[in-house]
Amino acid sequence: MTILNPNYIYMNKTFKENVAVAFNEHIQAIDTLENLKILYPHAQVVQGQKNSVLYPGFINTHVHLEFSANKTTLQYGAFMPWLDSVIENREDLVAKCDNNMMTQACESMMASGITTFGAISSFGTELEVCEKTPQKVIFFNELIGSNASTVDMLYGNFLERLDASKQCGNGIIPAIAIHSPYAVHPIVLKHAVEIAKNEKLPISAHFLESQAEREWLENESGDFLAFFQKFFSTSKSVTNIDEFMKSFDDVPTHFIHAVQATQEELTYLANKGHSIAHCPRSNRFLGCGRLAIEELIKLNIPFSIATDGLSSNNSLNIFDELRAALMLHHLEPLEALSTLLIEGITNKPAEIFALNSGKIEVDREADFALVTLPDTPSSLKSIALQTILHVHTVNALYINGEKI
Ligand code: BEZ
Ligand code: FE2
Which of 74, 188, 205, 295 has the fewest Cβ atoms surrounding its Cβ within 10 A? Predict the structure, then answer.
C-alpha cells in the first residue's frame, strides 16, 4: 500500500487540501494523512513537494503513433495540401518510424502525465510498442477504403489487425476506427459498426474535420473533387453527412474533430449519445477552423481533448494542447474553461470509453499524474488554470499503482 500526500487533489472538478490517497493497484481510501496512517500503518508514505497537485492519470483519446517520424515534412496551413503531402510522404514516414521512435512518442506522452491513450492504427505496426509501454492503450484499428474494387481486401486486412489486437493481453483494449465519411465505403462501415455493437468495442471516426470534406459530402465539389478524380478516378462521394451519421445510431461513437459540423448535426450527435474529440492544435495547423466548444457545452455533448498525431502537431505533450485550447477559445471564461479542459483529459474520456480510471475515487485504478506548481496558487479555483499555464512535465506518474 502507498499513501500519497500532495498539497492538492483534483476531485469532482475542484481541488481539495489536506487529503491524501491510499492505493495499491486501485484506490483504497481518500482521507486525511493522519487517518490513512492509522488505517494502513505499514503503508509507504510519499510526500508531495510544496505546491504539488495530484490529478488522475491523463487520457489522450486520439493519436497516430505510426506517423511519429513527421517533424518538418508535411505541409501545414490548409487541409488539402496537407493530405496531398501525407499521400506523397506516407511510405517514407511510416518506414522511418521504427519501434524506437514510437517508444519515444509514448515516453513523451508519459512525461506530460498521459497514462492512457487511444492509438489510431492504420497498419498495425505500433502494436508491439503499445503492448510494451506501461500505459493503457485503446487500440483503434482503422478501417479505410472507399473504392468498391479494393474494399473487400482492405476490410479483410482490417479484420486481421483487429484480431491481432484482440490476442494481446492486459493493457490493450481492442477498438475500431472508421477513417472518415469520405474514405470508407458504407457497406464495410456497416459491418464494422455491427462488430463494435455486438462485441462492445470502442469506436471512433474522423468526422467533418475540414471545409473541403463538408463540400465534398454535400455537393461532390471543392478540393476533394480533384483529389478523388486524381487518385480514384471518380467524381462521386460514397456517402453523405446524414447517411454517415445515421450509420452510428446504435453505437455511441467518439467523433474526431467535428469542426465543420452544424448546430443541427451536433444536436443529432448529442441526441444519439455520441461524443467528440477536440484536437485544437491539429485543427489550427491544418487550417480546419475552430470547433465551437460553446455549442458542445450548450448541448451537453461529452468531449475529450486530444493531441492527434505528430503528423498534424508539434508535440504529444498534453499540457501544450491545453494551452493551445485556452488561447483558441478566447471568449470562454478562463478558469471555467481550464476545468473543462482538465475534465476533457480525465473524467470525460473515462466516461466515454467506460474506463475505470480518470477520477480520483475509491475503487478506481490508481493512475495518477503528480505535478508541481511554481508557487502557491492564490485560490483553489485557479489551480486548473495555473496548472495549464505552468506545467510542462509531471514529477511522478503512477499506472495501476506503480510508479513509472
Ligand atoms: C480511400 O482509401 O478511399 C481514401 C483514402 C484517403 C483519402 C481519401 C480516400
Ligand atoms: Fe486523426
Answer: 295
8 Å CB contact between 272 and 254:
no
Strand 368-372 relative to strand 396-399, pairing = antiparallel
All domains of the chain in start order, with CATH = 2-56+357-403 (2.30.40.10), 59-352 (3.20.20.140)
- Whole-number Å distance, alpha carbon 146 to ligand 1 midpoint, is 6
Mean of pLDDT values over 126-150: 97
Burial 121-155 (b: 16+ CB within 10 A, else e): bbebbbbebbeebebbbbbbbbbbbbeeeebeebb
Rounded to whole angstroms, the Cα distance separating 18 from 9 reads: 9
The best mutation among 231, 233, 238, 244 to test binding of ligand 1, ranked by most ligand atoms within 8 Å of the C-beta, falls on 231
Beta-carbon neighbour count of residue 361 at 10 Å?
Answer: 16
Ligand 1: residue whose CA is nearest its atom 4: 183
Q: Which residues of 334-345 are buried (b: 16+ CB within 10 A; e: fewer)?
A: eeebbbbbbbbb
Q: Which tens digits make up the pLDDT trace of 343-367?
A: 999 999 999 999 999 999 999 999 9
CB-based burial label for 296 (10 Å; 0-12, 13-18, 19+): buried
- Ligand 1 pocket list (CB less than 6 A): 144-147, 182-183
Residue 82 vs residues 172, 256, 333: alpha-carbon distances, Å: 31, 17, 33
With beta carbons less than 8 A apart as the criterion, state whether 241 and 235 touch: no
Look up residue 150 and give its DSSP letter. Answer: T
Residues annotated as part of the active site: 209
Give the per-residue pLDDT at 170. Answer: 79
- Phi-psi category of residue 11: left, alpha or beta, with phi > 0 → left and psi -120 to 50 → alpha: beta
* Residue 223 in grid coordinates: 478540393
Phi, psi for 46 (deg, rounded to 5): -110, 120
